[in-house]
Task: inverse folding
């Protein structure tokens, strides 16, 4: 099954103080490092607050938020509206430890119906990763079938992703069952965490 990738790079990076997406790592930025790990997928789309030059020059397709202060759900909504695949793998732009082997293993959780036809009614609307019993919605799979419920949530000014998972067909996958640990999807949120990451690389 073809899958697109959506990388959410529109966060405020309030605790970091600078745009996390462009922090340097492995002779590249966080954003470009993650994108390179996703080059096996059908398309990569970057979700941003605004279409600024530093994003435009990366060469990836971009979508911009229409509503401010709506959180990750807005970026997921904008990505789902334009993808041509059934599913999109949503990733945060501040997970520099992500590897394509892990992403490949996780996306294998989608199973085509084995009834010989193209009926996808047995497939979930969302496949949400869990790590140490905590949901990881920004390293999870979303189907275009979730769009109607997201549109309802936007109309009601609801933006918590957990509400979406409660209202659509959702599967939950524990990262430990895939043979990986929570470190694989670690977020870098503060300058102290970033400096530690850089020292580990040296």
Result:
């Amino acid at each position: 099954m073809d899958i697109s990738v959506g990388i959410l790079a529109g966060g405020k990076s309030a605790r970091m103080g600078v745009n996390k997406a462009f922090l340097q790592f492995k002779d590249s930025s966080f954003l470009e490092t993650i994108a390179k790990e996703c080059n096996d997928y059908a398309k990569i789309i970057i979700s941003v607050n605004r279409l600024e030059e530093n994003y435009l020059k990366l060469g990836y397709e971009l979508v911009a938020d229409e509503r401010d202060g709506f959180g990750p759900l807005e970026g997921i909504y904008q990505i789902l509206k334009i993808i041509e695949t059934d599913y999109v793998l949503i990733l945060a732009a501040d997970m520099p430890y992500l590897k394509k082997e892990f992403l490949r293993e996780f996306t294998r959780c989608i199973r085509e119906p084995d009834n010989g036809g193209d009926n996808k009614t047995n497939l979930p609307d969302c496949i949400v990763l869990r790590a140490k019993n905590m949901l990881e919605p920004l390293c999870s799979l979303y189907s275009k079938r979730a769009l109607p419920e997201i549109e309802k949530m936007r109309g009601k000014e609801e933006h918590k992703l957990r509400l979406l998972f409660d209202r659509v067909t959702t599967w939950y996958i524990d990262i430990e069952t895939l043979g990986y640990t929570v470190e694989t999807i670690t977020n870098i949120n503060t300058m102290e965490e970033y400096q530690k990451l850089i020292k580990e690389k040296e």
